[in-house]
Amino acid sequence: MTDFGAFWDLVILVLAALLPALLYLAWVRKSERFMAEPWSALLSSFAYGAIVATLVSATLEVILVALGTAVSHSFPAPEFTFLNGNSSAGLFFLVLVIAPFVEEGLKASGVVRAGARFRLVSDGPVFGASVGLGFGFFETLLYGLGAFLTGGLAAGLGLIFIRSLSSVLLHGSTTAMFGYGYAQAKFRGGGYTTAGYYFLAVLMHASFNALASLSAILLAVHVNVLTSSQADVIGLVLAITYAFAAIEHARSVIARTNFPGASAPHPRYRPPPVKPRTDPTRNR
Questions:
Q1: Cα(115)–Cα(134) distance, rounded to whole angstroms?
Q2: Scanning 9, 51, 219, 246, which has its CA 20 to 30 A from the CA of 254?
Q3: How far from each other are the two terminal CA atoms of the chain, in whole angstroms?
Q4: Distance separating alpha carbons of residues 23 and 93, to the nearest angstrom
Q5: Taking Cα atoms as reference points, which of 71, 57, 68, 63 lies closest to residue 90?
Q6: Distance CA 98, CA 90 (A)
Q7: 89, 98, 141, 220 from 78: Cα distances, Å
Q8: Is position 92 within any domain?
Q9: Cβ(47)–Cβ(134) under 8 Å?
Q10: Does 60 map to a domain?
Q11: What residues make up the domain containing 136?
C-alpha cells in the first residue's frame, strides 16, 4: 500500500488497466474512416465485455473445472487426468482448451448483441474489438488486484503493464476476427462463416496461451534446452509480438472492408415485386 491509502491504490490500478484498453479501442476505431461507430455504442460493447463476458466466463470455467475434477476422482484412470483441475495436465487443459472455448463464446455473444447496429462488414471487427478489449481490461484488472494483494502496488502495476501489451490486445483481436466472420454472414449469408471464425478465434487464443506458457510446456515435456527464466522471457516476447501482429491484422481487415458498397444485401432480402406498367393505348 502507498502513502495515499488503499482507495487511491485501487484507483491507480483501475486507471492503469483501463487507459491502455481505451487507447487500443481508439486506435482500432481510427481504422474505420467511413461511417465510424459512435463512442456510445462502442463503450456499451466494451462494458458488456468487461462485466458480463468476463464474469460469466469465470463462473463457467470454475464450474467446468470442478466438474472435471469430480469426474477424475470418480474415475481415477490415467486417461482422465487432464480433467483434474489440481494436476498439471488439468491446468494445461484449462488454459489451452476450456478458457479459449468459453471466453471466445461469451465475447462472441457481445458481438451478436451489437449486430443490429452493423451497417458495413467493417463494423463487425470494430464491435468485436470493443467487446474483446473490455474483456481484456477487466480480466487484467482482476489479475492486477491479485498481484497487488500479494506483492503490493508495484507488483500489481507490473503485471497490468505486461498484460496490457499482450493479453488485452489478444482478446481484442480474436473477437475482432469473430466479428468479421459474423458480419460477413449477416450481410452475405452462410452460417458456416460465423462458426469458422469462432474456431479461428479459439485457435488464436489457444496459440497465444501456449506461447505465454512456454516455460511450463517445456518443463512438462522434459525439454531442457532453455532455463526457466529464458523460456519465460522468450515466451513473453513471442506472446507480445503475436498480440500486436493479430491486432494489426484486424485493423487491416477493417480498413479493407470500410467503404460504401462493401456490404452486399442480406441474402434473405427480396425486393418488392414490380408491377408491370400498363399501356393506355393497348386494347383500344
A1: 17
A2: 51
A3: 97
A4: 33
A5: 68
A6: 10
A7: 11, 19, 37, 16
A8: yes
A9: yes
A10: yes
A11: 6-256
The answer to the question of residue 47 being in a domain is yes
> pTM of the prediction?
0.88
Radius of gyration of the chain (CA): 23
DSSP state of 278: P
Within a domain: residue 190? yes
The total number of structural domains in the chain stands at 1
At 29, list the grid cell.
476505431
Q: At residue 248, what is the residue type?
A: E
Question: Which distant-in-sequence residues (6+ apart) come within 8 Å of 258 by Cβ?
Answer: 31, 32, 33, 34, 35, 120, 122
